[in-house]
Amino acid sequence: MKTITHPYYTLGDLSREEINEVVDSYVTFSLPWKIKPLPTLSQDTTTIFNHTTAAAAATTTTTETAPPAAKSWADLVRNKNKAKAQAAENAANSQTTNPEGQDSTRAVTSSKDITKTPKVNGRVALQGIDNVLHNFKVSFDGKLIRPRGLVNNGNTCFMNAILQPLAHIAPFYTLVKDISKNVVHSFKSKTPLIDSLVMFINEFQEGPDVESQGVVEYEDAFVPEYVYDALRSLKRFNSMRGRQEDAEEFLGFLLDGLHEECMSILPQVTDSQEDPSEPSHEGTNGTGAGSEWMEVGPRNKTSVTRATEVIETPIKKIFGGQVRSILRCPGSKDSVTLEPFQALQLDIAPDGIHTIEDALLNVTKLDHIDGFTTSQGIQVEATRQTFIETLPPVLILHLKRFEYNSVGGIQKVHKHIQYSTDLNIAPEIMSSSKAVTKPISYKLIGVVYHHGMLAAGGHYTCDVLRQNGEWLHMDDTNITRIPESEVVAEHPERLAYLFFYGRSNLIDS
User: Fold this and answer.
1) Residue 184, domain CATH
2) How far is CA 305 from CA 15, 327, 429, 436, 499, in A?
3) Domain total for the chain?
4) Where do Polar residues bias regions lie (predicted)?
């Protein structure tokens, strides 16, 4: 047996073939691996080789000092497998198999190892990121983290104002931390965006604030450039630097990118976990791609219903909702389309809209479509109406503050929209298929503001609610404690642009 020593960590109890496999996978990066004989261990002494116990191991055997670990990546690439030398020696001495003496350390694997894992009752025993994504459950019981400012490095306030609320949203923080704890980093990772969020979340320390003479001392600000770079690697997001960016657009790209990376892993999990004894509902429940079926509604009225396929990823579980769009035209069955959303778009330009509740009710207004042509080529007067089909645990509301004007181009809507920390969504906004009779309650957990008079410029800041109930106003590197009354007050210098609301029954549970 050999032990293999690396600047970041040490792997013990590997065969020569396993060592060569590891070395081959990293040879491209010229990492300074060193192969040494495994030290002889007595029954009374167990030596564990890793980056935290190197000094203790030196008292048992002589080893060369490894270079200091890299700060950014160390936490991502540490090997968490404990040495099994003592258990193996005891088993050899006793010549018997002791189930209780087997290593119980949780296996840490990458998604590519799923095909090598054993099966339980005919189903794959999931490990690593596959297990985290597949078994993720939304919970608002999160950890209190110490706030840190974010440096505005070349017009990146739009990014900072989005990353800060996400870091303080308990389900999102928990998801990323679970991935960090269960997945070994790989330089050949196929999920660079998830990796960048792991790095970002790991920049924060958990626990209460540090105070000195009654003054809170926040952690030093840092630059989350790696998140920006990971997004820029996407083809549709490669033109960000050097121009004024929209915070809502950035949020959309970020959540879509994370959702797609989760989908690249989850299909194989879904296929392997599917129980063949259970009947398939594709084509009847609207979850298949291009699925279409007949639906019976109120008063036995039928409609042709279509749905967009959306794989159930953790991102969808946290932020994903669905709207029902109904198209009606004379002489035809209603045409219903179910579409997903991650941020609900709210038109605030009409004169009658003054509150968030007004804007939500406006979503269901009846729109008349002039010049609509049927499949037979006949022009008829058609209408379209939209309702909310399902609501997510974290509801993102986007106020459409920028509208196109044929004279002046894109203009900013300067209107204060009233809102409170409690939001009740009226039953009439919901689809009749859900039979909702009581308002659905949400609590405000974050606000993103746009500063400035023009749509083509300006600045972004945010307010975030911490796990201890404290509100913070964050302006890049500046962090200020504020009362709840200031969060919902009207501010002439800034206007609310994005809201993050958490489902009340989940927060209070």
Assistant:
1) 3.90.70.10
2) 58, 10, 19, 20, 31
3) 1
4) 94-110
Q: Whole-prediction pTM value?
A: 0.71
Q: Are 446 and 497 in contact (CB under 8 A)?
A: no
Identify whether 419 is part of a domain.
Answer: no
Name residue, tokens 């007004």.
358
| Nearest Cα to Cα of residue 389 among 300, 279, 295, 313 | 295
Lowest mean pLDDT among 124-128, 391-395, 424-428, 467-471: 124-128
**In which domain, by residue range, is 151 found?**
126-261
Residue 149 in domain: yes
Amino acid identity, residue 425? I
Helical axes 170-182 vs 128-135, angle rounded to 10°: 160
157: how many CB neighbours lie within 10 A of its CB?
A: 21
Q: What value does the CA radius of gyration of the chain take, rounded to a whole number of Å?
A: 27
Is 113 domain-assigned? no
Enzyme catalytic residues: 157, 459
pLDDT in tens, 165-219: 999 999 999 999 999 988 776 667 788 999 999 999 999 999 999 888 778 889 9
Report phi then psi at 20, rounded to 5. Answer: -65, -35
